[in-house]
Structure formats: C-alpha cells, structure tokens
Amino acid sequence: MAEPHHRPLDAKQIPRFAGIRTFMRAPHTTDLAGVDAAVYGIPFDTATSYRTGPRFGPEAIRSASALLRPYNPGLDVNVVETLSIVDYGDVPVSPGDTERTYGQVEEALAQIVDAGVFPLALGGDHSITLAELRVLAGKHGPLALVQLDAHGDTWDEYFGQRYFHGTTFARALEEKLIEPKSSVQAGLRGSLYGAEDIDSARALGFTVLSCDELRALGPSVYADLVRGRIGRRPVFLSFDIDVLDPAFAPGTGTPEVGGLSTAEALSFVRALAGIDLAGADVVEVSPPYDGPGHQTALAAANFAYELLSLRALPVAGR
Ligand code: MN
Ligand code: MN
User: Fold this and answer.
1) Ligand 2 mean position, distance from CA 24 (Å)
2) How many angstroms does the Cα of residue 117 sit away from the middle of ligand 1?
3) What are phi and psi of 300, to 5 degrees?
4) Average pLDDT of the chain to the nearest whole number
5) Closest CA to 65 of 285, 274, 264
6) Where are the domains of the chain?
C-alpha cells in the first residue's frame, strides 16, 4: 500500500460536529502521493434549466458527510482502511460560462486521473459530467455509462445551447466518450414533451429503464442486466440525486414525483458490487431547495460513500 495512507479524523477522538467540513472530514490536499481516491467539488450550475442552486452542492454534501463512518455494513467493506481518501477541494469554474468551465474541470481532473487516482465528483449540475468523461475516456477509451437519473439528458439542444444539463449524454456519444451498447440509463420518469424524449435515447443505443421498469426488475436483476451490458469495459457511474423521489430529495433542480426511496436506491447501487468503476459523480444537489433536515445533502453524501465503497471492493472476475 502506498504511503501516506490518508484517513478522515477519528470521530472517537474528535467529535463529528467538530473540525472543518471536508468530505468525511478526510484531509484536504492536492498532493496526490499515496492517494487512492480524490473527492472533489465542481460548484457549477449555469447549465440548469429550472431551479438553480447546485453550485452550493459540494459544500452541503461535505457538511452532511461528517456523519459517515469507516465501515459500510451494506457492502462489508471498510472504506477508509481500503482506500486512502482525500478531499481535493473544489476545481476552478467560471460562473456563466459552461464551455470555459469544461476546460477548467478537464485541466484539474487530468492531474487526478494521470496520477492513477480514482476521481469522485460532487456536483454541480449534470452538465459537468461531460468534462469528467472527456478526461476519463482519454485515459481508458470509451466508457460504460451507468446512469441513475429521472432524466436521460440526451436532448440535442435547449434554447439553442448544445452544452446544458439536459444534453450531456448526447454530447458524450458524439464525442465517443461512452459506448452506448454498454450503457444503462435507469430511473426515468415524469412528464415529457413527447414520446420521442425516451425513444431518442433508445435510438442512440442506450439501454433505458423507466423508474417503473427499474422497480419491477429489482436490484439483483438490474445489476445482472448492467453487468451483461458493460462487459469488461471500465464504468462511469453518474448518480443524479433526482432519481430519488422529491419526498426524499427535495433539494434538486428538476424534481419528478414517483421516484425511488433512499432505501430503494441504496439497494440498486449496492447490487452493482464488483463492477470496474473508473470514475463517478453525484450531481444536481440544490441546497436552497433542501428540506429543514438537509435530507437531500445527507442522501448525496451517503451515495458518494456508496460509490467509494464500490471502488473499494474487488472487481469481479479479477
Ligand atoms: Mn441528469
Ligand atoms: Mn435528472
């Protein structure tokens, strides 16, 4: 194991409510020596279409993450002993300029990816995933996308803009950053402009599961389906918090009723144990719309922790 092994503050020595709020209270550093996983924020929400606010997402998720403990019983893994985790801080962004922000995120993320460190982004709206995929596909080739989201984000444009949080995966396909036959979008629901909104995603080659279909499959059949699609390709898992029902995650920009409970979504994510995770993000957390208990940020912190847990587990078949 590389040194130093970074660990969060020990809550048996320094209580959880004390200290500066990095993710899980892990050390904040941009020195990647000895680091296995870097959690970093992308505080950007210029590309939202309805409610803004995800620029405050990283801060809120970090704050809520203070409660997380080292051992994940759901996946039987001690996350902080298996992975040396740091909080890399927020990468530079340009409010109001999506394409300039992409360049800034790509430059910063390249440092992490070139060092062989697993990147986990805290968003930010869903537009930022395109910049992440550009860097990771540059290293690994086209990735398998596993997307949990109430929306497919495969529109061609919005008000004439090609770079926006609802066009991310259309652009990612055009740029050959993801392999559609290896990619699964799940959790889609809500009113649409027309049937073509879902048909167009299927026409692009993605496997698309509505939220009702996902729930009917259940976690283990869903995970088998995902494993069958991804094959041996490295995976990018993009968790849009709006896959949760607004009763569980009101703090998001484009809420859709009829979503997953937090418990259901945990089961779907944990069922993916053994996948070869190359990168991940948790996006669309909008703290200004969160509930008084900050349940959206708390859920997001826990899903970020589950994604680190997936990375900490052995890859199946290796
Ligand atoms: Mn999305
Ligand atoms: Mn969404």
Assistant:
1) 25
2) 25
3) -60, -40
4) 96
5) 285
6) 36-312
Please give all residues whose CB falls under 5 A of ion ligand 2, grouped by chain where several chains appear. Answer: 149-151, 240, 242
- What is the CA(242)–ligand 2 centre distance, in A? 5
**Ligand 2 center to residue 71 CA distance, Å?**
30
Report the DSSP pairing between strands 71-72 and 77-78. Answer: antiparallel
Q: How many residues does the chain have?
A: 318
pLDDT above 90 (res 169): yes
H or E element that contains 145 = strand 144-148
For residue 16, the CA-to-ligand 1 centroid distance in Å is 31
Query: What's the mean pLDDT in 13-38?
Result: 97
The vertex-188 CA angle with 187 and 193, nearest 5°, equals: 170
Whether 273 and 310 have beta carbons less than 8 Å apart is answered as yes
- Rounded to whole angstroms, the Cα distance separating 191 from 198 reads 11
Give yes or no for a contact between 129 and 172, defined as CB atoms under 8 angstroms apart.
yes
* pLDDT at residue 1 greater than cutoff 70: no
- Residue 197 C-alpha to ligand 2 middle, in angstroms? 13
Cα→Cα distances 57→49, 95, 229, 251, 288, Å: 16, 14, 31, 9, 9
Ligand 1: centre distance to CA 240 (Å): 5
> φ and ψ at 231, to 5 degrees?
60, -125
Check pLDDT > 70 for residue 2: no
Percent of the chain with pLDDT over 90: 95
Domain 36-312: top CATH class: alpha beta
Q: How far is the CA of 77 from the centre of ligand 2 (A)?
A: 29
Centre of ligand 1 from the C-alpha of residue 147, in Å: 8
On whether the CB atoms of residues 270 and 220 are closer than 8 A, the answer is: no
